[in-house]
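Retro notes, item 3 of 5
We never archived the inputs for the magnesium ion complex last cycle. Fixing that now. Sequence and ligand:
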Amino acid sequence: MAETDILGPAVVEAVDIHHHYGEGPQRVDVLFDINMQVREGELVIVTGPSGSGKTTLLTILGTMRKPSEGKLQLLGADTTGLVGAELDALRNRIRFLFQKRNLLSSLTAIQNVIAGVSTTPLADPDWDEARARHLLGMLGLGDKAEAWPDELSGGQQQRVAIARVLIGLPDLIIADEPTSALDRVSGRIVVDQLKDLAMRAKCAVVLSTHDERIFDVASRRLHIEDGRCFEVPIHYH
Amino acid sequence: MPLGSQQLRRQRTSTLLSLAGVTASLLVIFAQLGIERAVYDSGVRIHRAVVGDLVLVPPGFKSLQLHAEVPAAMTDIVDTNPAVAGTAPFWFGIMSMTHAGMKASRQLAWYAIDVERPAIDVPGLKENLYKLREVRRILFDRDSRPYFGDLAEVAERGEEVPVLGPPNMRQLLPEMFVVGTVKIGPNVVNDGAVVMSENTMTEVFGPWWVDRPAFITIQLVPGVDRMAVRDQLNKALSGRGEVITRSEFEAREKEYWARETPVGYITDLGFVMGLMIGMVFIYYAQYQIIRFYLPEYAILKSLGYDWWFFLCMVGQIGAAIITPAYLVAFTLARLVYGVAETTIHLGMAMGLREMVVSLIASLVMTAVSSVFAIRRLWKVDPIMLFE
Ligand SMILES: Nc1ncnc2c1ncn2[C@@H]1O[C@H](COP(=O)(O)OP(=O)(O)O)[C@@H](O)[C@H]1O
Ligand SMILES: [Mg+2]
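Structure as it came back at the time:
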């Protein structure tokens, strides 16, 4: 219980989550009895072999997919049976970082970042642009603001995507293998910056990967194998 | 966010194709509108020239071109109403005509008036009216199509130009003299016109015409209620003739061309076709972009953008296509109208009606295609972004 006091309140709380695809003879059970918590300011890494259900779990945590069974609490709200405007409001506090194709190719880097906030009708364009520039600067991309996505390297594209995630001031970031398309050095920069900025914003992060070299950024590591999930202690080098 | 227009700029081929298609479809629409105006407006030139407050026409009058006639005796019934100040008959028919400067004879309209009380007023008529008092003297419409040789020019120089009218019962061609010109303008059916007196008409076509005017105009005593008098007269005529206002007279003729001739049907069809083709081309541009950028729209959905945003975006793409297309089509249509008008003389022109109707058509095209396009976007699910 001591740990609960140090860390913030639970952002994600999954209770007995079970998920299967298809029905009848096509039925594939992917996740069994998932129980997990992610707290404010935590970066949780989800590992597991390919096809073990990491993406499935992440889409469930991000409310993109309803679990077959079980309960998911997000930011204190029970998501079971949540629809329409309430679900949209909850989703608006979650941001996603995908493996690739995160950016809109016909928008410049800074326009891509601003796209992360202009959903709100109260948006102030000048203020949004200033924040977007500031974030790009912090990510070391100050001089790339006007560049088109196809002029950026894979790592730079992921960092623009991080800026877009952060500008929306989310409470939860779901990142599905954000470094697997990158080389070692850029992958490292991407996760370090993601962790640094997310922790500053007191935001919870769930990140799936099978890249062992980045395990050390995690607060905790969950491993999925045969559809079951268990916590693995982290060894700091 | 200037997303729609930036995406369009990157999809150059489909954008240009769509632009060309929409421009062409708008040109089709402009052409239909131009033809309609030419047909309708040229069909009511005489109606607009009518002098008088009301018009006495055959019962159920539809069009002058149907050669219906109202018995001259009806004038007596009309005249008994104290609100009526006077009446004036107008005759109309078709005849063939030729003169030394023409290779073959050609048909044109003849209009006959009572010289003492002309039922119409057109430019050139008042000052030349006295010349018509002499029998077989006629005025030629200088806006006639260019099939009548140098008739107008010679007549305007003050010369009396002898012309030959249609053969009479003894197969002789009666001689008449063009002594001046008026300005009326041809319509779809008549390439030209001449104006003559009642006496000339009697002499050339026979006395039985006198009793068969095409319509009779009615002048009212100043200050009376036009509509009330119209109703009184209709009651008195009890179905043997019909009294209508000038604007009703004009409206009936237009209605006839729009509803009872192929012209209205064909132009409506052309208009609808233009509209649909335009829609298809706008939809094509929107569809190409949506299809190409589907994963990017999924990203926007994952960021919480709602259908309203997508509708604006799709509308933005549509607007970026329709605006230049409209401007180009408008400019081209004005040129085409001008070129066509020099030959057809039917009053084809870019007026407010053409501009407003084509603008509304453009908006409808964009709105409808946007609604169809948004349906496709609706199915985008951000879950596709997870590999
Ligand atoms: N939409 C789907 N329909 C059916 N089966 C699926 C679907 N998505 C994933 N699966 C299956 O579920 C299992 C887990 O997939 P996934 O969550 O993508 O694993 P990971 O991300 O760890 O590679 C795999 O066996 C995969 O074939
Ligand atoms: Mg996966």
